[in-house]
Amino acid sequence: MDASNLLLFPLLLLASLSPASTLRLSDTRLPSTQAKKLITDLNLFPKHSVNIVDRHLTNRSRSKIVEKPFKFPNFIDSDGVSVEDLGHHAGYYQIEHSHDAQMFYFFFESRSSKDDPVVIWLTGGPGCSSELALFYENGPFKIGKNLSLVWNEYGWDKASNLLYVDQPTGTGFSYSSDKRDIRHDEQGVSDDLYDFLQAFFAEHPELVDNDFYVVGESYAGHYIPAVAARVHQGNKAKEGIHINLKGFSIGNGLTDPAIQYKAYTDYALEMGIIKESQYKRINLIVPVCEAAIKLCGTDGTVSCMAAYLVCNGIFSSILSIAGNINYYDIRKECVGSLCYDFSDMETLLNKNSVRQALGVGDIEFVSCSTSVYQALLMDWMRNLEVGIPELLDDGIKLLVYAGEYDLICNWLGNSRWVHAMEWSGKEQFASSSEVPFEVAGSEAGLLKSYGPLSFLKVHDAGHMVPMDQPRASLEMLKRWTEGSLSETARHPESLVSSI
Question: Which helix (DSSP H) or strand (DSSP E) does residue 108 occupy?
């Protein structure tokens, strides 16, 4: 055992003895229980923990492209649009460099112009289907009464050609017959998504010249920088089809854990969730957390699990004080174990008529995968900020946005890692003015930008900004992709955050 691993045991011991920590190895905050809680808090109860199937028991043959236009059987539209008119597609791509991974996606052509950017949306979890965003945040539809679907006035397909991908493999309708396709790090995740994108653009050559953006939220704060870097690397190496990458955006994400976990107590104190005495007590565990994360960055195996256990003691200590607070939106309370009710999505996508329309056959829908969650535990405390400076210096745009009432991936921690990032424009970004982000004559947020980097604190929103502020989020996407994010700002204001 090397020296770094020897340090893990005293770290864990200190954490368990700390008056701030409630961490125990038999605790309900262990990874397996945390994964289940993540799912049940959303009122989701997937039948399977992951989509690993027996190839001999499915009706599918191994093929590269399975895509079809579709129309949801319960879609309500007074104009009676046809499948062809909708421009909605769903299907699978075989992931080339996998054992047998089949990645499912929805693709919605822009309602405005086919020249609009191509935007891929990635939901976090880790292990939650991107259909969560499709139906509850920024997709073309909202789920109405009796599982009917109605147009979303602020769907992001009004400004982009929009892709939702079930990933990593095993999530949603994506599946494999080989357990080796379950990913454990961002190298595997980003390689799979690069293969997916190569297959997508091969099938849709008419979109190859469109601007391309990678967007998502939550644990996708890990996925998004990794995928953007992988695409950029592929372009530089001329590996396959050139993907016209223009930018990437992280919404309420987990990107730099060392900075973001340290911000938990500051945010909780600032928002009145904890008192000063509790703040001081919980902060005793912060140095232990930082040391564990540092070991994870250099060792990367057992130390990463130790960092996960130690650092989540900070978050769980805050929650033990806050009670039934909704940690995705501190303005709300969780009723029992229910923080949101996304069960209609799960019911809808498991209906036989819907599965037939989508062409998924006998594949079950896994709304959130506990197996994928646990497989990525060694990835959790990795710092994904490290690859971003090169992208910025090469002119690839980054927008980090965060709803102000989210606790779990709060705006303060996100603001701090963005400001701390070492890149060529660091000083200029730090000294730039913060300005109002105005939508329809009202201030919807506070924006700070320099060159390719922008940070937006969104007012009156929690973890899921497009759900809480649909109009503002659509405007954000439009202006950012058009290069006019701060266009309506008028009067510079002093920086609100404490950096």
Answer: strand 102-108
